[in-house]
Structure formats: C-alpha cells, structure tokens
Design brief:
The chain has nine helices and eight strands. The chain is α/β, with parallel strands linked by helices and 218 residues long. Strands 1, 3, 4, 6, 7 and 8 form a six-stranded mixed sheet that branches. The longest helix has 17 residues. 28% of the residues are buried.
Length: 218
C-alpha cells in the first residue's frame, strides 16, 4: 500500500499546541531544603544571595522544581481516569508532534523536543488528551530519553492491550549543547516498537513515513 493511501486510511491527530496538557500548579510552601541548597550554590559560585536580583531566587527555584518534577507525583490511573472506549476501529491511531520538556538526570539540565505515539487498537481506544498527558507525566521527572521512550510505550501497552505500540522521541539536550561537547545542532532520536510494529516491517514503515511526511514536504 502506498504512503498516500496509508495516510488516507490512518487516524491522525497532529498536536502543535496542546494547552490542556500542562497543569497549573499552586504551591503554597516551596521546599525549604531546596531553597537552602540554592543559597549554598549561589555562595559557592561567588554570588551574593542577598542582592536584589537573587533575593527570591531560592524560592523561585524551589517552586520551579515542584512543577517540572510533578511527574513523580502523578498517578497514571487517575491521569487516564477511565477514558478508555469500546470502538470498532482497527487501523493506526497516531498522535504526533507532542512537545515535551524534561531534565537530564546526569546534569539536571533540560532536554526537550517532540514525541510521536501510535497504536493499533484491539477493541478499545484511549481519549485523545491522555496520550500527551502520558508523555508529560514521564517527561516531568529526572530522565534519560531512552527510558522515557520505553516508559511511554509500556504504559500504553499495559493500559490498552493494543495490537501494537510505536513511540519515537526526538530530543535536543542542553547538557551536550551548552557544556561538554558543545554541539548545538546535535539531536537524539529514540524509538520503542511493541507488538505488530515490531513484527510487521510494513506497519513500522507506515508509521515512520507518517511522522516524517510534512517535514519532507517542507
């Protein structure tokens, strides 16, 4: 089957912006331990934590870490919230271009990019917003991209029991861009293929063609 026909028969949702994915955090009391640690870092690098621009920096950083590591405190069952539906549909469901921001666990510097997630239903589909929320849950932790990719695929497999799951994550890593090797144009691509996407080369090729289609047209 040609790519054009595959595109026509495939259920695709492209997300450039998905504002409902990122929750609003209200943190009444940021961690005092984090605040004290930030003050110590400021002192160790030769800064003055009491100067005007840095006076509230420890509190700001503590609040920031509560937000960007919220994935540790997210319950997958509550996140999905029963949004599984019986649907007579057996072709590919693809959610592509899901933006994510995470922290490299080695240097605690950001890495960011896009995730593309597909599955072949086996009698059930999951609510559209839940796939970006799953990506967000695993991204908002200290991570390595390889593990995050597998975690996304495995949770969808465990939740839906589909005939196949495919995940590709494309990331740019600040730990390799602003320090160390200092290669600002380098990027990393990871994938996880389960079930029919691993076993069927044609299905895998269709998925990969669909996630690159618009970029090739540009």
């Amino acid at each position: 089957m040609g790519v054009g026909r595959a595109y026509a028969r495939t259920h695709i949702f492209r997300l450039f912006e998905f504002n409902c994915v990122t929750p609003t955090f209200i943190i009444e009391q940021p961690s005092r331990d984090i605040q004290e640690s930030v003050r110590n870092i400021l002192l160790d690098i030769g800064e003055d934590p009491q100067r005007d621009g840095l006076l509230k920096t420890p509190e700001r950083v503590a609040r920031m870490y509560e937000e960007i590591t919220a994935g540790y405190h997210t319950d997958p069952v509550k996140l999905i919230n029963g949004a599984l539906f019986d649907v007579d549909y057996s072709e590919m469901v693809l959610v592509k271009d899901i933006e994510f921001y995470s922290l490299c666990e080695h240097h605690m510097l950001p890495f960011y990019g896009r995730a593309h997630v597909a599955y072949i239903p086996n009698g059930k589909v999951i609510g559209l917003s839940k796939i970006p929320r799953i990506v967000e849950m695993f991204a908002r932790r200290l991570q390595v991209q390889e593990r995050m990719t597998s975690q996304i695929a495995n949770l969808i497999q465990e939740t839906l029991n589909p005939r196949g799951v495919a995940v590709v994550v494309e990331g740019s890593h600040m730990c390799a861009m602003m320090r160390g090797v200092k290669k600002s144009q380098a990027s990393m691509t990871t994938s996880s293929m389960l079930g029919s996407f691993r076993e069927d080369p044609k299905q895998r090729a269709e998925f990969l063609a669909l996630i690159t289609k618009n970029r090739m047209a540009e």
